[in-house]
Amino acid sequence: MPETRIYDNNQKIAEIPEDGATTVNIRKKLSDKTLIAKKEGYKNTPIQLNAVFNPVSVINLTNVIAWGIDLGTGKCCKWDNDVIEVEMEKTKVEE
To answer: What is the 3-state secondary structure (H, E, C) of the chain?
Structure first.
């Protein structure tokens, strides 16, 4: 939805343009993450990013330094949902 703003920890990280799509890089971590979509006239909508273990990182278990780098850079995890569609509910207008 155009003009929707996406927030991470109360900081705006993106705004959806007229074409209705945007790309945002979000650092991976070992746990899920919740973003918030906000647009005037609509209820704030949570967006859940699901973290999953990246099985390719198991290759680095033979090298402690490489494993540490994967943990530090977030390469041992990935987001399960690469594309997210957000449906927002209009706020009720009092008559």
So the answer is: CCCCEEEECCEEEEECCCCCCCCCCCCCCCCCEEEEEECCCECCEEEEECEEECHHHHHHHHCHHHHHHHHHHCCCEEECCCCCCCCCCECCCCC
